Amino acid sequence: MIELTRRYxxxxxxxxTQAGLSEAENLAIYGKCANPNGHGxxxxxxxxxxxxxxxxxxxxxxxxxxxxxFQERIExxxxxxxxxxxxxxxxxxxxxxxxxxxxxxVLADEVAKRSSAxxxxxKIVETRHNSCISGANA
Length: 138
Ligand code: NI
Description:
By secondary structure, the chain is of the alpha+beta class. Helices cover 31% and strands 27% of the residues. It has helices at 23-30, 63-78, 96-114, and strands at residues 2-14, 39-51, 118-125, 131-133. Strand 3 (118-125) and strand 4 form a beta hairpin. The relative contact order is 0.21.
C-alpha cells in the first residue's frame, strides 16, 4: 500500500454562527469569523489516498481521475458559494474542522466507487495560521 497526496484549492465564503445563539454569544465563540456579512477564504485542500499500486500503471489511481472527482463533487458544489447555504452545513458550523470532515465524507464515497484506493485524510488550509486534518477516526 502506498499513499498519494494531491493538492487543490477553492474560494468560498462562510459565517461562523450557531443558530441558537445571540450575535454576542457567537462573537464570543468565533470572534471576527462570526461577522454576519460573511467573509471568504481561499481554502487549500490536500487529499491523501491509500491503496495498492496498479501493476499496469505503477499508480494507485490516475491523478486525472482524482482531479475530475474533486471538480465534480467539491469544486462545482462549494467554490464561490456561501458554505452555510449548503445542506452539509445545515447542522454543522462551517469551521475548517467541519469542512475537512465534509470533504472527506464526500470524496470517500466517490473514490471508493471509482477506484481501489481509499481516502485516509483531508487537510484544509484556511489561513496562514490555521489548518485542520481529518483522520480515519473522525
Ligand atoms: Ni473564516
